[in-house]
Each structure stands twice: as structure tokens, then as C-alpha cells.
Design goal:
- With about 350 residues, the chain is α/β, with parallel strands linked by helices.
- The chain is about 30% helix and about 25% strand.
- The chain has 9 helices and 14 strands.
- Helix 1 crosses helix 9 and helix 4 crosses helix 9.
- The protein is globular, with a radius of gyration of 20 Å.
Amino acid sequence: MGYKIVVVGATGNVGREMLNILAEREFPVDEIVALASRKSLGTEISFGDRTLKTRDLDTFDFTGWDMALFAVGSDATKIYAPKAAACGCVVIDNSSLYRYDPDVPLIVPEVNADAIVGYSKKNIIANPNCSTAQMVVALNPLHQRARIKRVVVSTYQSVSGSGKEAIDELWNQTKGMYVPGQEVAPSVYPRQIAFNVIPQIDVFMDSGDTKEEWKMVAETKKIMDTKIKVTATCVRVPVFVGHSESINIEFEEFLDEDEARDILREAPGVMVIDKREAGGYITPIECVGEYATFVSRIRQDVTIENGLNLWCVSDNLRKGAALNAVQIAETLGNRILKKG
């Protein structure tokens, strides 16, 4: 016996990945429906060996459905997620709307699966920001061993984190560099993204941080430990898929790099590729389509008493969004909504 599943925003990059991953992982589905806005009504989408036609989100009745995986922006989520939750359908939300709500658990199953029991307050579970999700998967097993005091992270985030229009902008700007008269002005981003890096993701806040940087701080504290100090610099790079992070960690006690490497090799959701030779590490191209969070370049930071550096790479459309949402659904099903 399986579940009745709704995927909201099924025509977007993350919504399509949700359907792909539900099929790949053989999630126990009795019924599934793909929802989208009216302009996408009737669009055909693959789900395993089946083809689904999108239905209208605005008129859909969530009564009797078990879980709804939301992959739409905060504005639409604000309207439809409470409706679904009120009908008894548990919402797993990929937007930022509920991440900082104290009555909504923010879940990365490898890190804080036990917190999922808090879903019952609002019938909603939040999925974290893509850059936070991969980082805490790598940090948590080390934190359990040596307690993390402070994290300094610089991100190198792909354009797919901004949606299809950003992917198109990078593609068209790249082509335009080689065809005189076909240059493409920035539209999604404030500066050209092709052959460039942009030290801004989301809007600037009064502190001087961007909202993406603030999200990494707030979400790491909520998911892992409020005592951890985090400072982030988030940068958009001309990569289609795959986020990378350079992470510097200061611990309360000494942790040897070899022990850290061994801990990470055994950690759920982590794959260590760490050879001290040319190419002995993972780059975004190799992580595309993979489930794991990859860790490389593990080494002691000798400038502080208890420090480590590492390089962390993950498919942001998967672990950073769709995969984590499906893992939340699996956790919810296994622990709470048990069927069959």
C-alpha cells in the first residue's frame, strides 16, 4: 500500500526532478498528480515510464491526498500550502516561506530527521536552501565528533539555482560572445554571468550581507546547533548545475584531518573523493545527476588551533532541492504516516 502524492510546480526544474527522483527511488506511490499554473495546463511530464498531464493548481482539492511536494515560489506557496495543510495533506515546501517559522521543522534527513515530528503543528515541513543543505550534510558528522565553533564558507553557486531563465541567460550570453551583434544584456542577473562571477545572490540586507548569506547562517543554526557561528560569502558562477563550497571550520577540540576523512567516509549522504594529485577531487560537472554530497581537499588549517578546510560539491537541483524533499517524504512515511 502506497501514498497519494501531489507535486506542485511540476513543470519547473525542481518539480521535474522531484518526479524523476520519486520514480528512481521507487517511492511507494498509489496515485500521483502533477500540478501547475493555468498557463501550463495539460503539459506532459514524465514520471518513470508514465506520462502525466498537469492539472490546475488553482482548482485542485487536496482532500484525501497524503503529501504535497511544493516547488513553487513563496507567493504561490503562501496561498496554496495552507489550503493543502488544512485538508490533511502534509506539505513539504521547497520555498523559503516557512524555513524560519518556529512551528515548522526545517529538515535535512541525514542531520535532524528526529525534528520531523514537529510537522503536526502546521502540517508543513520546510526544505532548506540549496547551499545550506549540502553544507550541513558535510558538517554534521564532524560536529558530532568535535563540536564546531565557527564556519567560514564561500560558495560558488550554479545558475540553475535561479531557474530556467538564468540557465537560458548563461547559454545565450555564452553564444553571444562569439557572434558579433548577438550579445545578450543581463536580465536575470545584475551583471553578465558568462565568463564572469557575481558576488551577489538575492538582495542586499542592511548588514551588508545578501539574503542568501543570511539564509545560510539562520538555517545552519536551526538545523544543527544555535551555538555555531557562521559567516558566508555567496557567489554566482557560470556553471549550469552544481554548487561548490569552500568551507573553513573551527572546532572546540582538535580533529585530525585523517580522522575527519574517515568520519566523512562513513557519514550518510557523503562521498569522499580526496587524492592529493591533479584531478583528485570533485568538480560540479561530476556531481550532476548524483545523490551524494561530495567532499574533497580535506586538510588541516594550521593558522588556528583546531581548524580544518574542505571542498564540498553537490547537485543543487537534487540534494539542494528535489532529493532532499523526497528524502523528507520517505522519512515522514517511514516514521509517521506508515502504510501497508
